[in-house]
Amino acid sequence: DLNTEKKVSYVQKQRGNTVYYLKDEFNKKPFQKTDNKWVKEDSKGKNVNISYKNYDGNKLQKDPSALYSYQQDFENDVKVVSGDEFKKIQAPRQELYLFRIKDIKHNKSDLDQIVKTAYPKNYQKMRTEIPGEYSSYLAALEIFGGFEFMGFFLGIAFLAMLASCLMFKILSGANSDKHRYEMLNKLGVRSKVLRRSISREIMVLYALPGILGIVHVLFGLQLFKTLLLAPYRGIWLPFLIFIVLYLIYYLITVKLYERFVLPDVKIDN
Q1: Which domain holds residue 58?
Q2: Is the model's pTM score more than 0.90?
Q3: Which chain regions cross the lipid bilayer (predicted)?
Q4: Greater confidence, 146 or 29?
């Protein structure tokens, strides 16, 4: 069942390409629509407050544009008229039913089923064309799903490029560093200490660009606030993937560096 927050219906008549509504109904049951600054978030990026703007009959009679997005045919004209004018219109009475649910994502399957029942032949087309926020939600999923895929692909590509450049830069200097470790061997430094030293040196080389990249992303996401409601929501997941892959590159670099530098080092324990 749909977890509805509000239900409302309005009488309408359609004559030609014009849809007429009764002014008095909007005075009794104001039409609500989200305004430009309609959502607020908490520190975790969760939507905590959604504000709606009320449109009464007088306001809609002067400017009915708020009703356009809820018409079956977007080319239809909309007029809000008085009771006497509404009675004179020779057209069958119809009902416009509007309902608001608390969580579109949670009720997506139920909404899909409603559209499938209403439009069994044109389900795939109508699910993105029916009036209301549901079609907007599906359109946003398609658009931002592409952004998400592109961002993930580019992120992996840049991560591989960064880590590979670091790896080859470090390994290219292994031969020159080999003499340094031979000298440490002659001084009696143990193999375990040398391995620990290698791990720490390479860790510093990997950590600095990694931290800089994370800070850059955190500040860069500010630019996407106009496109995304909560650009920082779920950010822990890509950071976790980045850290795991980055750590794998680091461990591979350490092992390869040790093979280049330590094979000829023989230390008496």
Answers
A1: 4-101
A2: no
A3: 149-171, 202-223, 235-252
A4: 29
